[in-house]
Structure formats: structure tokens, C-alpha cells
Amino acid sequence: MEEPITSARNPRIKELLSLREKSRLRRESGLFVVEGAREFVRALRCGFVARSVFYCSQYLKDNSIAAYIDSCGGTPFEVSEDVYDRIALREGAEGVVAILKERRSTLEEITFKGAPLVIVLESVEKPGNIGAVLRTADAAGADAVIVCDPRTDLFNPNLIRASLGSAFSVRTVACTSEEAADWLKANGIAILTAQLQDSKPYYDTDMTRGVAIVMGTEDEGLSDFWRERSDAKIMIPMNGMMDSLNVSVSAAILCFEAVRQRNSGK
Questions:
Q1: Is residue 50 classed exposed, middle or buried when 0-12, 13-18 and 19+ CB atoms within 10 A define those classes?
Q2: Quick one: pLDDT at residue 211?
Q3: How large is the greatest C-alpha to C-alpha distance in the chain, in angstroms?
Q4: Looking at the structure, do residues 63 and 24 belong to the same domain, yes or no?
Q5: Could you list the residue range(s) of the whole structural domain that residue 125 is in?
């Protein structure tokens, strides 16, 4: 059994830190970093494969996590408390940081039964917002999240952290807006664009059919590309001084309206 890693200068630790910080290295290597016992276990349950796992015995609180570490197929490395504190960005990660192999989805891999519910994000940049949208997608049972013309890496550690592991359970695809629109039309999925102009309240729109809820950034909104291809333009009425909500909040409101309509027959 190898001695615990006690220095942050260890080549394996330096590689982990580089993967966490550099999106280009993640793309080139096909590897990414997952921090936290909960996220690690969810990734494994969703079919992701570990290459290596770094754990700190002093922080492991759940014996079942040790079993996952032993059976995940990745090489385990014990680290000292000082090294773990260096590689873990947040408290409460329960002693596990892992390097996993990427698994990127394509539009052709999206499957659905009945009327699909899809979330489309155009050029949303903040990883935390995309992660929160993925949590909503998982909770609402959405069939997929399509990130068009992405400005952030789908394996960004902040995105994974904000998703609480939903980044692994939700089919997530990065592509161009043109590719997404063509796929939606080919599958008979109505495009509902969230916008302030020429729109009607979201609750007056039929979401029991197959729909894609399309949202843009808070500062720029949706491009003309999506506005011109919209089957229905929807808005969330604002009763105060603000004219919009955070994109992740808007996604939650609109997705659960679709859930409400489908569960109640509208």
C-alpha cells in the first residue's frame, strides 16, 4: 500500500489542480474533477468512470463511501489533511475528490417518451446558473438540457458543484443554435422563447405538448435567431421594479408550470 500523499507538489496533485482550473486541459485530456462524496457517488451511479480518487481518511464520515472508492475502478490515493484542504474548494465534501473521464452527449442520444420537455440555454456564461438549471431539470424530469453556443465548459467544477450532481443525471448537450433548432423541428418539439417583447404570460401557453423552453442571458436576452423561430413567446409577469429574473429562477418557474399542466391536464 502506498504512503499517503503529503505534498501539494506531488505530480498527481498538480495534475488535479490543473484539471480543475484549465478548461483547455479538460478538453484535451477528456478528464474532469469532481469534489464531494455525494457528487462522486452520483457520477458513478450515472455511468461515469473514475480514473483516480483522492481521499482523506480523517474526513470520511460514511463507510459506504469507502466501498465506492474501492469498487469504482479508479486508482485510489490517500492524502493528508493538509493536501486535502488544498484540493477541496468547499467544506463538507466528506473527504473525496476524484478525476473522472468525460462523457459528452449528442443530440442524437436524447430519448424521450410521450411529450418531451427540453430546456435550451443560449450563450449562458455563468457556470453556477447552468448548474442550477440542471438541478431544476432533474427535479422536473426534463428530458434534456441543450446549451447552445456555450461560453463555459460543461465540466467546469463550479457548474458541477452548483448542480449537486444533476450534471450527471440530466442528458446535457452542447451544440450550436442552428443544430439545436434543426433537431427540435425534426422532432416536432415546439419552441417557446422566454422574452419580454410580443409575449404572453407563460401560464396561458399550452405546455402539455412537446416543448423546448428557450432562454438567453439576463443582460442580452435571446438572439434574433431564436425569436424568429419561436412557436410561442412567453414571459413571467413582473409586478415590481425589476423586469426579469435570474435565468435559473426563470427556468424553475417555467419548467414546473409544464409539470403542473401535465399533472393536472391543464
A1: buried
A2: 98
A3: 66
A4: yes
A5: 107-264
